[in-house]
Design brief:
By secondary structure, the chain is mainly beta. The protein is built from no helices and ten strands. A hairpin with a 6-residue loop joins strand 5 and strand 6.
Length: 119
């Protein structure tokens, strides 16, 4: 399975972006999916995880209430809607196949997409 994240960009604080992660060579509906991010000089961290049907979702405390994960299995795509973005959300965002919606055991990392929040 190959994953490709997209939708990043430059946005002002308080703005919104929607990230997408498209799978090829496999069926995303077979997997739980996770979103992760890595800021400069920091370790990669879990952002959100979504169960294979989309019914169970977990967020990190830093994004809870601002970010929404979803998926469209018919389109083989998972999404991350990011609202009220903050400077500290600046990072490269990655999607990955995970063992469960808590984001454990990530594998098959997609190519990341840069999100920059700046005034």
């Amino acid at each position: 399975v190959q994953l490709q994240a997209s939708g990043g960009g430059l946005v002002q604080p308080g703005g919104s972006l929607r990230l997408s992660c498209v799978a090829s060579g496999g069926t995303l509906s077979d997997y739980c999916m996770g979103w992760f991010r890595q800021a400069p000089g920091k370790e990669r961290e879990f952002v959100a995880g979504i169960g294979w049907r989309g019914g169970r979702i977990q967020y990190s405390d830093s994004v809870k209430g601002r970010f929404t994960a979803s998926r469209d299995n018919d389109k083989n795509t998972v999404y991350l809607q990011m609202n009220n973005l903050k400077l500290e959300d600046t990072a490269i965002y990655y999607c990955a196949i995970v063992s469960d919606y808590s984001g454990s055991n990530p594998s098959y990392w997609g190519q990341g997409t840069q999100v920059t929040v700046s005034s």
